[in-house]
């Protein structure tokens, strides 16, 4: 077991909790409420840094028991190799069952980010998630979304109700007062629960630093094989597969790059960077002038309100 | 432009370690902003985010672009656009929900609940206020204290926010006139005194021009109070204030990884706790000492209000979700009748006497609300007579729970005094409440344990008690079938009793008419009688139309698990009306009978009854045999 971690105390005769302590306590409270009230919860695990923090909080919430629900990755088959490696290790370390779901229809039709554009996200992720929730009968799913990520998420509840067909109706969400969450639902309905709602990107990084949370090495700069595509810089994580889908072998150049968010490798833009430590990454984030989601293509396809549209369709 | 309290200070580039060290130690404050559409609320929040450099270049570019396209500030940046959200709202140009925004200074992280100012959105404001340490109430300096200012202040005060900031905005439009500012403050003070607000901090500012928000303004040299951000940075947060109170922790979940470990997991509501402290588990009243405070990072020497922990005790006491661990010599009260303030949040109004789920802390019980003592007009604070509560109305009502719950007055403890009401059918959160005190009659009634238990009663009769609840339209055949079932059970030496309209309406319920609340009370009493009879070991048959799902649910919740059997006597309206044994349908069709189920009052058929009989396909005797087959063996 790791040595007791003590947050620095403020200069007050009483012990004023730091913002990270309060965020941690709130997230733990939320997870325990779900476990107490839902029939079959699951934690959606995307292998990104937010997922890593969420998983870490779950371990803390139920210690010394392992988290009493499985981890589930809705896979597109196009993630970075480093992500797959951490996925297996993280589940094992937490003592949790790992469920990996790949939409069989998307696999059969060979859906990929080059030929199919938005359909790639829709089939692998949106449809894949719905299928997986239905297949296993999960009635509550933890997700790592934060309210600061995108404007329409600022109004998302912590407990977000979905109809039996996984639809989200912004007009029919429940008010959340105090720390009281109403988790009651009819058969077939489900809840998406966002324990990190009140965390910001900086909070996440600070917590990773304070708690030594393990994250995918791709967040840190290293020399990696890259190629340019439609004005963006990408990592050639699986060059043979890229060639097969793209129809040609992209020109590879080694560059010092890292990633600010992680998704499918052909869709996740890299940034050239020398930030190789947590401190340097945070420093770069604080000095940087573009927002986090900009590196991801998903927000761009329908203008400003696209995330909201995706949510109504059932994307997380 | 760069203020040193904000994030782009030179430390980031020069000494990131020192910067991070500094920011690791921030506290956190939650506040809400209230104001009307034109008070400049969104502009103020946009300004706070903008000045804290929480806006990135791409967002800024989009903002500048949007400002020209849809902004209201000409070529200037329209900060309000930063905080508008859902597409539809954006087109309408109004905010219609609570949105949460984040920014931070060196000293604090802030969570802002952006609350709308429209009258019909009391619900959202109450939601935002429930978690806030502090409220910023905006006033347009040109307009002074308005009806909505009073409403917002009243709601914040009722929700227990002690820290109020009166943000007198748009000072630039009145030439930073001190006399005008002073007059507004005096006006507000008179109002604040009248509703019991003890103190507030008034700040002259301009969201658009940036005066006294993050930098002290040269335009208001006459003002020597704090600027907004300094006040927000230094004001006390609730979780710190809560540490001085006695220890209370609602048990959320019992952690049992193996037989040797039993930990009570929960978030500490108030007080502090250390190993060795004597705790009392409520409602049982059993006491034990804290053995350890367990976390993944090792056992703690102390834990305080706001932390989520797992506590183990020296003795094996039986505590579970819903119980409260508290300081042994200063425990909270346990009661089942209360006076409380209720804010109604649903389109469908409060139904007096209907059973709702009440969730308080980690306790969920069935509860009914009596007719409001009065409704409070949120604009004038006047007390008005009211029969029920509609969306966005606030009233003071008596609440009765079916089980005793652990509570404290809301003013002392938000966690053990604040509750939500949940509709049992739709599952919506329909109301929010704040407990004032328990009613004395509940404190004085103590449950008298009897030596002959319901188990004894049942075993002497050699049967399992049941409530066979027949529901269906008038003329569907409920009484006929129930009668057949009872005869058959009697032949099997089962002890039964049939409750129907004749033996109930003429005696027990003869004081009740046919209004909605009387009908609910009718069913409730029948349920209580049926429950007593099952305690006596009987198989009870009831034959009442009982048209409303919520009322049948209320009875189901009263009766022990599995003993309630809902039987839907399913007869189409045309068939029942054609039979018209008592001539009632005819009268109803002629308008001589009001509120007649199926004609001008709805019948809510059971969605998932234990038994359904179709009287078109079955004779009463066949239906009775079918029911008997379903409920046997009854031992």
UniProtKB/TrEMBL annotation, chain B:
Domain Tr-type G: 26-240
Catalytic activity: sulfate + ATP + H(+) = adenosine 5'-phosphosulfate + diphosphate; adenosine 5'-phosphosulfate + ATP = 3'-phosphoadenylyl sulfate + ADP + H(+)
UniProt keywords, alphabetically: ATP-binding, GTP-binding, Kinase, Multifunctional enzyme, Nucleotide-binding, Nucleotidyltransferase, Phosphoprotein, Transferase
Gene3D superfamilies: P-loop containing nucleotide triphosphate hydrolases (3.40.50.300), Translation factors (2.40.30.10)
Family: In the C-terminal section; belongs to the APS kinase family. In the N-terminal section; belongs to the TRAFAC class translation factor GTPase superfamily. Classic translation factor GTPase family. CysN/NodQ subfamily.
Role summary: Catalyzes the synthesis of activated sulfate.
This protein's name: Multifunctional fusion protein
